[in-house]
């Protein structure tokens, strides 16, 4: 296994987990379940650290065989810039989630204002990760590029 393989295997974690945990947090808010809210907050805080680590697998993958990526450098640059934005967003989301955990320590409820902010931030972060994943896919899959004229392998002309 090399850095590229590791990056491709792990980068799905935040792409899928952020929207699912945001939905779980919303579920806990709607049904006023402090336990579900705290579980979602704890997992969002943990995910933040994991997502930041995953970002570095992409940096290592790009540097491993730089000559291979010369033909798609523009796509790689767009993907990397988007990944930086998504990583910043998930970092802020994790800090806010940790704040929510701290404010709800003991028997205190999670403050409603932080739940609203976290759900909004979770949606923004999920969109940023979806965009990053799409741009990453365009690096090695020309058929999904917006300007592609390439037909899928099994398509009939």
Task: Characterise this structure.
The chain is mainly α and 157 residues long. Helices cover 75% and strands 0% of the residues. Helix 2 packs antiparallel against helix 3 (34-64) and helix 3 (34-64) packs antiparallel against helix 4 (73-103). The protein starts with a helix and ends in a 17-residue tail after the last helix. The model has no long low-confidence stretch (mean pLDDT 91).
Computed structural class: mainly alpha
Mean pLDDT across the residues is 91
Strand content bin: under 5%
Largest sheet: none
Q: Helix share of residues? A: over 70%
What is the ordering of alpha helices and beta strands?
HHHHH
In summary, what is this structure?
The protein is an all-alpha fold. It is about 75% helix and about 0% strand. It has helices at about 5-10, 10-30, 35-65, 75-105, 110-140.
Secondary-structure map with pairings?
Blueprint: H1 3-10, H2 12-30, H3 34-64, H4 73-103, H5 112-140
Provide tags for this entry:
elongated; mainly alpha; 5 helices; 157 residues
């Amino acid at each position: 296994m090399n850095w590229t393989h590791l990056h491709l295997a792990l980068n799905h974690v935040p792409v899928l987990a952020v929207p699912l945990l945001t939905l779980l947090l919303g579920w806990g808010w709607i049904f006023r379940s402090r336990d579900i809210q705290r579980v979602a907050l704890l997992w969002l805080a943990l995910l933040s650290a994991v997502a930041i680590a995953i970002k570095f697998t992409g940096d290592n993958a790009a540097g491993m065989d730089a000559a291979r990526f010369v033909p798609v450098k523009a796509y790689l640059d767009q993907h990397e810039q988007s990944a930086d934005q998504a990583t910043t967003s998930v970092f802020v989301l994790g800090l806010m989630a940790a704040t929510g955990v701290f404010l709800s320590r003991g028997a205190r409820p999670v403050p409603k204002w932080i739940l609203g902010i976290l759900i909004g931030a979770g949606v923004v972060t999920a969109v940023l990760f979806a965009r990053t994943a799409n741009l990453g896919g365009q690096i090695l899959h020309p058929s999904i590029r917006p300007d592609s004229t390439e037909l899928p392998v099994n398509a009939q002309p």
